[in-house]
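Tutorial sheet, problem 5. The two components below are modelled jointly, 638 residues in total.
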Amino acid sequence: MRIGTLKQSYVADAALFDSRTQKVWLAVAGALLLLFPFMASDYWLYLACLVSINVASATGLNILTGYTGLVSLGQAAFMGLGAYTVAILETRLGTPFLLNLLAGGIVAMLGGLVVGIPSLRVKGLYLAIATIAASFIAHFLFANLAFTDGTTGISMPPAKFFGVPLDTSFRLYWVIVPITLLLLLGAANLFRTRIGRAFIAIRDRDISAEVLGIPLLRYKLLSFGLSSFYAGVAGGLWAYFFRVVTPESFPLLMSIFFLAAIIVGGMGSILGGILGAAFMTMVPELLKLVVDLLPGGSELTVFLSPVRTIVFGLLIIGFLVFEPLGLAEVWRRIRRFFHLWPFRN
Amino acid sequence: MMDWAYLFEISLTGLASGGLYALAALAFVMVYKATRVVNIAIGEILMVGAYLFFTFSASLALPLWLAIPAAVLCCGLLGAVIERTIIRPLLGEPPISVFMVTVGLASVLVGLVEMIWTADQRRLPDFMPTQPIMIGEAFLAPKIFWGAVIAVVFIAAVLLVLRFWRGGVALRATASDQAAAYSMGINVPRVFSLAWVVSAMIAAVSGIIVGSIGGISSSMGVFGLSVLVVVIVGGLDSVLGALLGGLFIGLIEALAGAYLGGEYKLLSTFIMLVIVLMIRPYGLFGTREIERL
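Model answer (C-alpha cells):
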C-alpha cells in the first residue's frame, strides 16, 4: 500500500511511472495481457483486438481534442484514409505489413494536416463542423476514386508477419496489442515534452499561449497530424482485422463514437482514452448479454439496435452532466479511497 | 448547349426546398441566439415532430386541423423537457460540452423513434394540393411548391411574433445582452426555456413539411446536417443569414444534384461550407467574435 508520495526533483515529478506501487501494478497488467490469449475464448480475443484498435484511435483523438482542445468529428475519416492506404498497398504492391501500417499512418497524417489548416481561422464549433465536412469529402473520395474499387470496397488477404499469416484473433492479438501499447507509450511520453506542454497551453487558452511565444498554427497542425497518424495506424489495424474496407466502414457515427469514448473516459487523460474506448466497445456486448438473460430474450432482440443507440446517447449525456471528467476521475477517486483508508476522503 | 428553361426549373425547385432549409435554420438560430447552444440534434427534433404528426393523423386518425397543432405542441413540450433536464444543468459549462450533449440527445431521439415506430420508411398523409404548378414554362412539383409557401408564411409569422410579442422582445433582449436583460427584469431562465420550446415547435412544422414531401424514416436527421451547413454558411447568430443561407444551399444542392448527380448533393454543400469558412470564418452574416486576453 502507498500512503503518500514524496518527490525531491523535477525529474521524479515528471517521471512516466512515478512510484513502485504503480510499477508493480503495471507489471501485473502486462502479465495479464500476456496470459490473456491463452485463457480467453475466441470471442473474447476478438473483443480484445477490437478494444485495442479503438483505444489506439481514441488516444489519437484525445491528443487533439482532450489535450489541444480542438474538437474533431473527423476521426473516422482519418481511420478510413489509413485503412484504404493499407488495403491498397497490401493488395496492389504486397509490401510488408509493418511498412503498410506506417504508410497508412503517414497518409492519414497528411490528410490531418490538410484538414487542420482551417484550425487557425476557425475554432470551437465551426471547426467541429468543418471536420464533419472533411469526413463527407473523404467518404465521397473513397466511393468514387478509381483505385478504391467504389462502393464494393477492397477485400484483402490476411496480413503476413515473417511468413505467418495473421488470420485468427489469437495471432492478430500479438500484433495489435503491442502496437497499441507502443502508441500509448508514445502519447504518454508526448506530454512530458515541450510539444505536449504547448498543446496543453493551447487548450487552456490559445491567445495566452500565443503571447507566451507558442506558434499556434504550427502546433495546432502538429496536433492534427499526430492525432491523424494514430487514427491512420488504427485504421490500418482495422483493415487487417476485418479484411474488407468499404466507404461505409467509416461513417460519421464512428467519429461520434470516438468523441463519446474520450468524453466517457475523460478528456485530456491517457488512461481516460483507454477506459473510455474499452467501455464504449464493451457496452453493446453487455447489452446483448443482458438481453439474452432476460426472459423472452429472442423477441427482445428486435429492440437491441435502438436500445443500443439510446444507451449510447444516454452515456454521453449522463457523463457530461454528472461526471464531466469521465471514468478516469472515477478511477482516481477509487484510488484515493484506498490511499486514505481508513480515513475519510 | 445550355438549356436555360431546365436551369430555371432546377433553380426554382432549389430555392423552394431552400425555403425549408431556411425554416429549420430559423429553429436552430433561435436557440443559438438566445442560449449560445449549438443544437446538433435539430434534425432529430424535426424528425420527432414528423413522427408525432404521423401518429396523430395516421394512427389515431385525427383530422388535420387537430393533428398538426397537436404534433407541434407535443414537440414544444419535448423542447421544454430537453431544456430543463439536460441543457439547464450545463449552463456555464464550456460550449463544447453542451454541443456534445446535443450529439447524445440526437442519438437518444433516433433510438426512441426506432423503438416506437421502427426504422421503416413511412408515408405521411397527403394534405397539400396535388395540382402541378407551372411558373412560366417551368414545372414545379406541387408538394415542394406548397411546402415552400407554408415555410415562407411561417417564417414571416415567426419574425412578426419576435418583433411585436412581449416574449419575442424578451428573447431578442436576452440574445443581445444577457446581463442587461437580467437587470431589466427579464426572467432569463424562462426565456431560455421559451427559446427551446419555440425552436422545437418550428422544427416540428418543418419536419411535417419535409416528411410529407419525402416520407419519414429514422434517418431523417440527415436533413439536419444540411441545416447545420446552412446556419454555418449564413452565420450562427443571424436570422437573415439563416434565411439567405437556406436559399443559397438549397440552390447549390439542386444544381449539383441535377448537373452532377445525386451523390454530389451533400458533397457540394460541404465544399461550399469549407470555402465560406476559409473566407469568412464567422459565416456570411455572423457576428465576428472579438477575443481578448
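Marking note: Strands of chain B lie at 133-135, 138-140. Full credit if you identified this.
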